[in-house]
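# nightly structure sweep
# worker-07 picked up a monomer target from the shared queue
# config: single-sequence mode, recycle default, output format = structure tokens
# input follows
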Amino acid sequence: MKDIVFCSNNCFVLYSAAVQAKNSENKESTPSLPQSPMKERLPKAFHQYSNNISTLDVHCLPQLQEKISPPSSPPIMFPPAFEAAKVEAKPDELKVTVKLKPRLKAIHSSLDDCRPPSKKWKGMKWKKWSIQIVIPKGSFKPPCEEEIDEFLKKLGTTLKPDPVPKDYRKCCFCHEEGDGLTDGPARLLNLDLDLWVHLNCALWSTEVYETQAGALINVELALRRGLQMKCMFCHKMGATSGCHRLRCTNIYHFTCAIKAQCMFFKDKTMLCPMHKPKGTHEQELSYFAVFRRVYVQRDEVRQIASIVQRGERDHTFRVGSLIFHAVGQLLPQQMQAFHSSKALFPVGYEASRLYWSMRYANRRCRYLCSIEEKDGLPLFVIKVVEQGHEDMVLTDTTPK
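# output follows
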């Protein structure tokens, strides 16, 4: 027989087979209760439930079949936090090592409380970059552009175009090299062979005036006079801009007049600092930029003749794509056969021209043209010079 446990008032009572034997002895003295219909079908067991108040008889209870419960899953054991970092992974698994560092307690001030909390994105890392600029005490001279360019050139970290050749052209009036500022001397204009003048230096000369077509007249006359006049500001020759006040002998270069704070007017007059009105004037001109077409009026035929008559020429005469090399000469016995109604054919004439190639489309080559003598008649020779090919020589008795 099985042991049955009853609970009453937090007290556990264990009844076994020995207790049942004792109860059977007391059965004779205790009157029996009427039998219930369940006694016939189910086995009965008589028990006694006792406590400190009274003794009660407990009738037989049906024995129910025990239900077989499914096996419980084994409990999941989690290692402690300090041991989780030391667990070694299997060879097939990924090994992760976690190192926990003690976190410093931040001291929150009143300013920190006002700031919004910074966001921390999971799986991202960042670093704080702090820049410290140290300025040495005392006099510090920053490097100039030339020093920086030289330093970068030594490093070889930059690519620069080839330097532009320096402009050695010099103005005949102010003696400054190269083109000037737009709001100053302005660009250089050609006066003669290797003779150049700044636009405003020539325009503001006393003798020079401008036509409606943009031609400057009497520039050579002003240049000859300037060779004898000394500037009141720089004390150099070439000054041509004089004060418009009667009997005033102050004369300046155009650039020196600007530096001396002379006053220029719209009617192309100028007053020196001694005679200029005080304050501003409604006719005062403060901007000297010239964007219109301006050129120096000159005799081009005489200029070409002076170039041709020079024996040893250090300059090249070029008109468009035609480059002039030599003019040649005609002897008295050649005059009758070496000319036409429109042109002369001097022996020794030589010029070159850049023109379209006869072999390739959209490519130019050089044609060297010359005049020779053969049997008392002119012979026209054209030599085709093209890169990658032998020179081709073409001859004929007529220019065409």
